[in-house]
Structures are given as structure tokens and as C-alpha cells.
Write a structure and sequence with these properties.
The chain is α+β, with helices and mostly antiparallel strands. It has a single domain, classed as Aminopeptidase (3-Layer(aba) Sandwich), CATH 3.40.630.30. The chain has helices spanning 16-27, 32-44, 98-112, 127-135, and strands spanning 7-10, 53-56, 62-71, 81-89, 117-119. Strands 1-2-3-4-5 form a five-stranded mixed beta sheet. The longest helix has 15 residues, at 98-112.
Length: 150
């Protein structure tokens, strides 16, 4: 697929079904409740600046998405940091440069909002996803994710 045939735009409420469909194809399970909460927070809430994007074909079919969150900081002072929360590419469109194009547009969009840094979390055992983010110039941060089993 040629990158010029893919259009990147801000995610809208009506993209919900497409996002859930892509995620279900990737994970082989429906997580619609999870995405309903994410859409309420990241797409529908007037308290968040829009940062989430979708990639669509010429016919309007959404084939990929990225969801992000911008941190405003305490007392309304910008923290100049964002998080890439979720990314999904329809398996039929993976390895065609769409994910890379989506990340590039996401980064450009964050720059336009004066964001200085973006972070994400990746399962250290997911070598394919680690490779994807490394190819897109993400590097390990100095922050260490700690966990405790209960």
C-alpha cells in the first residue's frame, strides 16, 4: 500500500467501531468496554486536547489508529509531555509503512502542541513491538516501571 493513499486525521467519536474492529483482529477478543472508556476520556471529553489519530484509506476505511494523552501539568502549567497510550494497525495492513506514517504524524501533531517528549510502555518480551518503536526513534527512558504481585 502506498503511503500517499493513506490519510491521517484526528480521531472522532464515529471511529469507535473501526478502532474496536482493528483491536479485535489484533487481539482475537473484543475489548469494546475498554475502548468505550478510552473514547470517553480521550476523544469525547472537553477536558483533553485531541491527540488521537486514525489512518484511513481513500474510501474512508480506518486501517490504523493511535491514541495519546497530553499532560497539562499542575496549576495549568504545561508539562510538555504526552503518552502514546495505544496503537493498532489492522493485520491486513501491517508491514506496509502505515504504522510508521501514523507515528510520524502523531509526533508532528504533538510538536504543534508544543510537546517536548512522548513516552509509551511496551512489554519487554514483545520483540516485534520493541523493534517497531526502536525503528521510530523511541529509546528506553530513565523511568523504571515497578510492579508488585498481589
Amino acid at each position: 500500500m502506498n503511503e500517499s493513499t493513506i490519510k491521517i486525521r484526528l480521531m472522532e467519536v464515529y471511529d469507535f467501531n473501526a478502532v474496536v474492529r482493528i483491536d479485535e483482529k489484533v487481539f482475537k477478543a473484543s475489548r469494546s468496554d475498554y475502548y468505550r472508556l478510552k473514547f470517553e476520556t480521550l476523544v469525547q471529553s472537553p477536558d483533553h486536547l485531541p491527540t488521537s489519530l486514525v489512518a484511513e484509506k481513500e474510501d474512508g476505511t480506518v486501517v490504523a489508529f493511535v491514541m495519546g494523552k497530553l499532560y497539562i501539568g499542575e496549576y495549568g502549567i504545561s508539562d510538555e509531555k504526552a503518552t502514546l497510550d495505544t496503537i493498532g494497525v489492522d493485520p491486513d495492513y501491517q508491514h506496509k509503512g502505515i504504522g510508521q506514517q501514523l507515528i510520524s504524524e502523531f509526533i508532528d501533531h504533538l510538536r504543534s502542541l508544543h510537546v517536548q517528549k512522548v513516552d509509551t510502555l511496551v512489554d519487554g518480551n514483545d520483540s516485534e513491538l520493541m523493534h517497531f518503536f526502536t525503528e521510530n526513534r523511541f529509546i528506553p527512558s530513565k523511568t523504571i516501571n515497578l510492579e508488585r504481585s498481589l
